[in-house]
Amino acid sequence: MPLRLLRVALLAVSLGTALRAVDYPYQPVPFTAVRVTGGFWEQKQEVNRTVTVPFALQQCEASGRLKNFDLAAEVMRRRAAGEKDFQIKPPTIYPFDDTDAYKAIEGAAYVLSMKPDAALEKQLDGYIARIAAAQEPDGYLYTFRTMHPDTPGHEWVGQNRWDKDPELSHELYNAGHLYESGVAHFQATGKRTLLDVCLKNAELLWRDFGDGKRRLAPGHEIVEMGLVRLYRVTGDARWLKLAQIFLDARGPGGPDYNQRHKLVVDQDEAIGHAVRANYLYSGMADVAALTGDARYLAAITKIWDNATGKKLYLTGGVGALANGEAYGADYELPHDGYNETCAALALMTWNHRMFLFTGDAKYMDVFERTAFNGFLSGVSVSGDRFFYPNPLVYDGKAKNNHEHAGRAPWFGCACCPPNLMRTLASLTGYFYAVKDEALYVNFYAQSEGEVKIAGTTVKLTQKTDYPWSGGVKLAVSPAAPKKFTLKVRIPVWAQGRPVPSDLYSYVEPANAGWRVHVRGQKVDDTPDKTGYVSITREWKSGDVVELGFSMPVHEVVGNEKIAATRGQVAFERGPLVYCVEEIGQKIDAISLKAPLAISTREQSALLGGITELVIKDGAGTDLIAIPYYAWNNRGLASMTVWMKQVK
Ligand code: FUB
Ligand code: ZN
Predict the structure, then answer these.
(1) Last-in-domain residue among 249, 281, 313
(2) Ligand 2 centroid vs 265 CA: distance in angstroms?
């Protein structure tokens, strides 16, 4: 038995759980095996690589986030040299400011994985050396305490390590992002510099928490996912066990703000701070997959039903409430909802993990909706301006973007920009998955990839201008002829439903459709109950699967239980949600009179190239709608996704 499996088996015995699984049944094809070669996502990734990544690294420097590591190192050095009382008041705002540097390095590492860049690699080496110098001899790494060790340098920091982590100190949150970053950097460069910092820190966590005696629920989840990544890369079962210890330390009887109201296995509702929640559910999926403990999966399945059935915005955003950056009550989906960018990308990672467990396309349907809308809206077309909240309405002047009106270059609390950047840089990791002799196609984008299946390497080439049109030519080229099953996702929107729940619906659901051809021959294109069309055959070089998804413009209405959308309509085409901006048109007091005549118009020079909608109503109103993700790229103007409609 390979060492890694042996460790997992021993771990399962020590945890008292039966080892029913050693990993997700559906294995993702890594992002490094797939690259975009043109079209929509190549443009976005290229802006990310050339603008956002250098910009975010530079912001970490300019804002003092990297300097914090230098200050922590300086305090250690001077105290070791005898200046006993020397300490420095942390000069930046939040004790989790360290994580922005970790996330930016992680995103840069993904970029490096796809395209070597000696200058960027050297820049990261420099940052990592500064981070390593701020690590205390026993592995502790948290600049806000190290630079101010005698008394708490911030009201969120406790007198002793970890004391205030269940509240707001974010010590374990910092550790989680550190681990994500260290593993990414190691995998990109083969260098252990940051990984060794992570492992030294994890050893400390093991000493402090590994025996399970100190029951401490991390105040902001992510350390669980980070530990799982450390486990995956090292095979050291202690990191997985620690992840489970931290999960099991939650609840009952704590605040629901950070999901400590119940034991995690008893939770059944998406609740509290939305980023924390979605990171928790992702961590639960990981631990369930790697331990075989199905109780976590049962819980997150119920939570997913609640989130998708009652708390999801049309844009794929979640976390309606600014107060607490939190999920609201069932159907509480006001148009000015908060929808933090981080919550959107965390929803994507959670949904992807749900797919990896079940092989059900509905999770990738939610993933796609969020990716194209409520996630992508977080960054400007230019790549250097950002949204933290992503509401569905804007009055043209409010400073609702963390004290900014419109997109901002950076934030005091800058969690979103580098988080978006790392997700965008690794997006191709969500395109394909395999299980046994089945190959899953989950995401449509012009790209090339290589997948191992049935003992053969298969080259996958997608030619498409999705999401602008629904045609995809997928060349499937095994190294040698090979029988396997290709499973192509038929998006839920192509099947006449915006989301895999009854939260929203199309006014004309029948006005949808798709077709599937192989080598020019129509094949049975009935999706199975998991949302895929299966094509089993002996594949050989030259085989091309042609997918055609009809892309009519859909009028969308909300479930009657959503107060905000009653009597209103929104517009979608393919996976894109549209909005109207008050630019060259009046959008206040819109009242669209049915019937509507809607046409599309390509605008290759506008907003990076879009298809806009031209909406004419029965009263002669003309409106131009643009994809939601592209709003507020032309100056301040009011915007709305939902519009009043009268019969
Ligand atoms: O608390 C750390 C991060 O800051 C959270 O994930 C964001 O919601 C923001 O509050
Ligand atoms: Zn954020």
Answers:
(1) 249
(2) 26
